[in-house]
Amino acid sequence: METLVLKIGGSTLESLPQAFYKHVHELTRTNNVIIVHGGGPAINDALEKNAIEATFHQGLRVTTPEVLQTCEMVLSGQTNKYLVTKLQEQHVAAFGLSGIDGELLQAKLADQTGALGLVGDIAHVNKQMITMLLANNYVPVISPISMTKEKQKLNVNADSAAAAIAKAMQAKLVFVTNIKGVMSKQKEIIPFLSKKAIEVAITDGTISGGMIPKVKAALSCIESGVQESIILDSESLIGLATHTACGTSIRLEEASYV
Ligand SMILES: Nc1ncnc2c1ncn2[C@@H]1O[C@H](COP(=O)(O)OP(=O)(O)O)[C@@H](O)[C@H]1O
Ligand SMILES: CC(=O)N[C@@H](CCC(=O)OP(=O)(O)O)C(=O)O
């Protein structure tokens, strides 16, 4: 059975149609499905309500202890349980957990200079835990909040958590976001992106904001031997079985980039 990591972005999470959840149910018939979710916009709302200011650096949230508390509350509480419920309504055996639970994800500080604050990169994935859930026919639904070896909680970008999990499980990685793919300057979907093209597109500003961690995460997966990494929206995912070209596929080799 093929293993599939579906990363669901906060940008699209609350507007996913019922057909999406039904499609996930279909996918579980022939794949081991692992879901990793974000929740950026919901975190923004909660921070705003509490008058806590937050800034971003290269698509990553600069995280103070106060910001971290809100991120955990939203991601591991509100968003995780929202998704688990939606999936269960469509008969998916969803099992919600965060990177902290069962020491699923071990993180380390992403930026030793302290500029990003309490932001983590995944250092280790507890594969056994994921395998155990999959073997019992559960679909793990994972919030990216994680902990260091020393038990310091860290805010981990959901794209990079999904990539770490896909690498560990050698799974195909699909980013489901609010846009049909990575867009060129001419606002056309770029079907294939290579490492070189990604570097150019970030430098010249074609790729910005939340798309930066996504393409970087996709690339890191491909570089570590993951077969495929693709960025698309929920509609395209549902149509993936019938369409040949869909979204943006991240490749190692050079491909034309406009
Ligand atoms: N070249 C690009 N192509 C597509 N989207 C881009 C590009 N550059 C920046 N973006 C932005 O990235 C967003 C997706 O990132 P983000 O909002 O973090 O999504 P998610 O919550 O799904 O992780 C898009 O909606 C778009 O505004
Ligand atoms: C460090 C960092 O940036 N963490 C992210 C975690 C959530 C996330 O990644 O949500 P999306 O998938 O919706 O972008 C944040 O605080 O927004």
From TrEMBL:
<keyword id="KW-0963">Cytoplasm</keyword>
<comment type="similarity">
    <text>Belongs to the acetylglutamate kinase family. ArgB subfamily.</text>
</comment>
<dbReference type="InterPro" id="IPR037528">
    <property type="entry name" value="ArgB"/>
</dbReference>
<dbReference type="InterPro" id="IPR004662">
    <property type="entry name" value="AcgluKinase_fam"/>
</dbReference>
<keyword id="KW-0547">Nucleotide-binding</keyword>
<comment type="function">
    <text>Catalyzes the ATP-dependent phosphorylation of N-acetyl-L-glutamate.</text>
</comment>
<dbReference type="GO" id="GO:0003991">
    <property type="term" value="F:acetylglutamate kinase activity"/>
</dbReference>
<dbReference type="InterPro" id="IPR036393">
    <property type="entry name" value="AceGlu_kinase-like_sf"/>
</dbReference>
<dbReference type="GO" id="GO:0042450">
    <property type="term" value="P:L-arginine biosynthetic process via ornithine"/>
</dbReference>
<keyword id="KW-0028">Amino-acid biosynthesis</keyword>
<keyword id="KW-0067">ATP-binding</keyword>
<feature type="site" description="Transition state stabilizer">
    <location>
        <position position="214"/>
    </location>
</feature>
<dbReference type="GO" id="GO:0005524">
    <property type="term" value="F:ATP binding"/>
</dbReference>
<dbReference type="InterPro" id="IPR001048">
    <property type="entry name" value="Asp/Glu/Uridylate_kinase"/>
</dbReference>
<feature type="binding site">
    <location>
        <position position="61"/>
    </location>
    <ligand>
        <name>substrate</name>
    </ligand>
</feature>
<feature type="binding site">
    <location>
        <begin position="39"/>
        <end position="40"/>
    </location>
    <ligand>
        <name>substrate</name>
    </ligand>
</feature>
<feature type="binding site">
    <location>
        <position position="155"/>
    </location>
    <ligand>
        <name>substrate</name>
    </ligand>
</feature>
<feature type="site" description="Transition state stabilizer">
    <location>
        <position position="7"/>
    </location>
</feature>
<protein>
    <recommendedName>
        <fullName>Acetylglutamate kinase</fullName>
        <ecNumber>2.7.2.8</ecNumber>
    </recommendedName>
</protein>
<comment type="pathway">
    <text>Amino-acid biosynthesis; L-arginine biosynthesis; N(2)-acetyl-L-ornithine from L-glutamate: step 2/4.</text>
</comment>
<keyword id="KW-0055">Arginine biosynthesis</keyword>
<dbReference type="Pfam" id="PF00696">
    <property type="entry name" value="AA_kinase"/>
</dbReference>
<feature type="domain" description="Aspartate/glutamate/uridylate kinase">
    <location>
        <begin position="3"/>
        <end position="233"/>
    </location>
</feature>
<keyword id="KW-0808">Transferase</keyword>
<dbReference type="GO" id="GO:0005737">
    <property type="term" value="C:cytoplasm"/>
</dbReference>
<keyword id="KW-0418">Kinase</keyword>
